[in-house]
Write a structure and sequence with these properties.
4 strands; Gyrase A, domain 2; four-stranded antiparallel sheet; globular; alpha+beta
Length: 112
Amino acid sequence: MADICDLTNKQCKPCEGGVPPLTAEEANKLMQQLEGWSLMTNKISKTFEFKNYYHTMAFVNAVAWLSHRENHHPDMIVSYNKCQVEYMTHAINGLSENDFICAAKIDWLFKI
């Protein structure tokens, strides 16, 4: 039986504010489903490494496509062979489940 909590099978829900950010306990529980992400006060972050600029940019474009599809967009810092991805839900100035859904989907993209 598939794990019903698998974040990659979920879709982001629109967030226009008016809801509280996740509690530290909720965020820590969702962090258990991610690999290599760092939890900060109001965001999650991970740096992905590549063998060259072409692969880095292919990843950035894939993240852009996924972000557009989910309508939830990260901040990215891009260099020759690295891309740092940061998620937070700006409308609530903190973390929502959407951040973890997108992070899990990016991890899946990175593996293929």
